[in-house]
Give the backbone structure.
Amino acid sequence: MSRRRTERPTLADVAALCGMSTITVSRYFREPQRVAPDASERIRTAVERLNYVPNLAAGGLASARSRVVAMVVPNISGPIFAPMLQALSDGLAEHGLQLLLASSYFSMDAEERAVRAFLGWNPAALVLTSRFHTAATERLIAGASQPVIETWDLDPGRAPYQVGFSHRQVGRDAARYLLDRGHRRIGFVHNSAAGDLSAQERFAGHAEVMQAAGLPAWGYNPTAADPMQAGAQALEALLARKRQRPEALVFANDNLACGAILAAQRRSLSLPQDVAIFGFGDYAFADKLLPSLSTTRPPAREMGQAVVDIVVRLQAAEEGIARRVELACEVVGRESA
Amino acid sequence: MSRRRTERPTLADVAALCGMSTITVSRYFREPQRVAPDASERIRTAVERLNYVPNLAAGGLASARSRVVAMVVPNISGPIFAPMLQALSDGLAEHGLQLLLASSYFSMDAEERAVRAFLGWNPAALVLTSRFHTAATERLIAGASQPVIETWDLDPGRAPYQVGFSHRQVGRDAARYLLDRGHRRIGFVHNSAAGDLSAQERFAGHAEVMQAAGLPAWGYNPTAADPMQAGAQALEALLARKRQRPEALVFANDNLACGAILAAQRRSLSLPQDVAIFGFGDYAFADKLLPSLSTTRPPAREMGQAVVDIVVRLQAAEEGIARRVELACEVVGRESA
DNA sequence: TTGTAAGCGTTATCAT
DNA sequence: ATGATAACGCTTACAA
């Protein structure tokens, strides 16, 4: 008995219409060069006539492969990951691949749920952000037959493919940039959002350079949940200090730094004279602030493209794909530091 | 002969491990209340032991339904659509649905390709941006058995579900806002990116109100491809006019308006005295500029939530789901106008 | 270059 | 409450 619930034509309908077997029509889509020109032409016509759209669930089931790439990002709407997503989505589309997306809000549990659901699709690849996951996620990706690609971070010790940069190096470079400009009392403002382990890596790099220069490394923890408010809070609190008033501040990200710049505007401070401000991320607003924000630009688009490259080469079953792609960040010196 | 290409456990493996049939295990996932408590418990243990992940392609094939919602947006990384995507993705995740995403760059052909690919997944719903599509896309969605939801626009004449707002009304409201503030020579700066038909709707609303007030409606077409540069170009050109120098400018979007504000900063103009600036979109940087940008906030998150609501009710086969959800935009008066 | 047969892992249907 | 069986629409393996 037929269980067809849609009127959608199938491969069999196309095959019947042009008097060929289903497998030939199937080949027409997957390996066109193996189908004779006149057969191709007849198939093309039939496909058009019926407005045939291949059922990808059926294809995925039969081949145990799919043309989707699944990615989990902390958030979609933020200025951080969007450029990478765009590059990823565009690059995948060029190769006939599609993007399945979920956001984790820096919650490893949410990431785990997303990974679990995604693996059910047999994705061509599973792309994650950062290298910190729950134990269950680790188990899932270790047992997965799909390739896993971690982004925004690097860790030579790990098994998955990695496309990223060194957060520690970002911290080092920012500290050196400020030291080179003569600052000595340099503070680091942490992200009030917990779970941003990469930001802690950046602080580690910062601290490393400070200590090598014989200077104290210290961080400030704002309590405000909203990043802009947290940045403002940090600025107010630190400039109010009688002793050890900082000359420069590195913020865990541009949102925090932006909050500080706006707070400085309101208080009519002049930056960077009163205090130099340095961020991370080079968000879209960084060059629009007054003063414009000095920050570090992560290789967002480049990471997206590198992921596409890996996926495409995996699809083609190429050999010798590099397991680790290290990309460089760029210090963008503007007015605020 | 077995064609299994992965070691991944299947429903049959779980069933074998706990001595039940596959269908019972299948029910455990889909209709838990129909499985006896002790059976449930045994299944739960087996699932955990094997780290079982359901094959969604198989499920989708068998049921002709899937737990994915496919969406095509003009772009992912822009400040415009990201908040809606975030709300959509989050809302879907709460209901165990996933988001398949593609960007069209305002190209109807790219949209068509994406729609074609997406329909192959039998998505629970297909979500599009705007109501302008190629003829082939129209044919595809007309013939699709999946529900189609159009967003960011409204058109009573169309068949798909719609969740949006009136761009024409946005144009009207902006013009009235500026008229109320005493401006009379008000210009409209078009988007240099072609294909943004919604922006032309906003201009139509603008023109309507201007003409009703007995004032001329006119638009300026910048040529620079980059929106920020286009905005700057428009400001320079229009303020250089000897006669009919505008008192206020409505920009097709906040990017253009931002370009104008930064250009004004460089020229040390004082806004809104020299010229009032009004945007559209309420992008993340709008309140961070100096002066902060007056603009219209579209109901981005609300649209995402409304789409989720429709999808969930469709999944539950509810009756009487509204085919058109009209949401309101909000004029956000700040410093620039 | 094309075709046949079997199977991918799940769910709908019907039966008990 | 549970199960047997037959699809779902496609691709693999092998054959011709």
